[in-house]
Design goal:
By secondary structure, the chain is an alpha+beta fold. About 35% of the residues lie in helices and about 20% in strands. Helix 6 runs antiparallel to helix 7 and helix 7 crosses helix 9.
Length: about 260
């Protein structure tokens, strides 16, 4: 068998040893502390080593002390950070979740494929490009971190919104008329936990969203006794419209919402 002598061309022995270990452990991302573990304890040149590997595009900075690892034999084709795993790097205290458009698509609420990863969190509002991928960090109140579950991506547990929580966000972020039709379809097809969905709606801090969900539940034929607490949470609030640009339509007095059912 012909040996490939080009794989580690241009790497020092120390660089090669680190690359081999990171490749062996199938690392997608690596921290400064992890790099220290893979090197001799008396190594005094870690910063220089990282600098050289960054120059050779084997390590790509994500944030201070964290890097994407690009194995030498994939540099030509490029290897990107796994988008869903970035949340754990930026938010080691787990105060985040992957949600919004990513989970709208994942749960079949829409066929639209998102062009960036949306990460709700309690500390950062920004749009960042990391290793060629776009991320939108959306700062939310801590009270919004509920209705979450974990999925495994590349062997790492990642926090995402569950289906019913995603349905609440769908009403908040999507075109309300389209969201209404889709959620009514899901409810009528018994494709969600309706009690959980209502409970999540009751906890949601935006009164507008609670009102809209109330209207949706009513149109889906959900009994009044199941939505009593949700209804009480919007009692005596101002009347709002489902349409952003119009207050024309029939007013649902129970939920305090002007309903324009036109599809223009």
């Amino acid at each position: 068998m012909e040996k490939n002598y080009l794989t580690f061309e241009g790497l020092s022995k120390q660089e090669m040893n680190l690359v081999v270990r990171l490749s062996y452990y199938n690392k997608y991302t690596v921290s400064y502390d992890e790099i220290k573990k893979y090197l001799p304890q008396d190594n005094k040149y870690i910063a220089q080593l990282i600098y050289r590997l960054k120059k050779k595009k084997i390590l790509t900075p994500i944030k201070r002390g964290f890097y994407t690892f690009n194995p030498v034999n994939t540099l030509a084709g490029g290897r990107q950070v796994n988008d869903f795993n970035v949340g754990n790097i930026f938010f080691p205290n787990k105060n985040y979740y992957i949600g919004y458009y990513n989970m709208f698509n994942a749960y079949g609420l829409t066929e639209q494929i998102p062009q960036m990863t949306f990460i709700a969190n309690t500390s950062l509002s920004a749009v960042k490009t990391i290793s060629g991928l776009q991320f939108k960090f959306i700062k939310v109140k801590e009270e919004c971190l509920y209705g979450l579950t974990t999925n495994k991506y590349n062997g790492e547990e990642v926090i995402v919104s569950d289906k019913e929580r995603t349905m609440v966000d769908f009403v908040d972020y999507w075109n309300i008329k389209e969201a209404q039709d889709k959620i009514i379809e899901i409810i009528k097809n018994d494709e969600c936990d309706i009690k959980k969905f209502i409970g999540y709606a009751e906890k949601f801090p935006k009164i507008k969203v609670r009102k809209f969900i109330g209207v949706i539940l009513e149109k889906a034929g959900i009994a009044d006794e199941m939505t009593k607490d949700l209804c009480d949470s919007v009692k005596d609030s101002a009347v709002i419209s489902m349409s952003k640009n119009s207050r024309v339509g029939e007013t649902n007095k129970k939920w305090g919402v002007i309903i324009d059912d036109t599809r223009k």
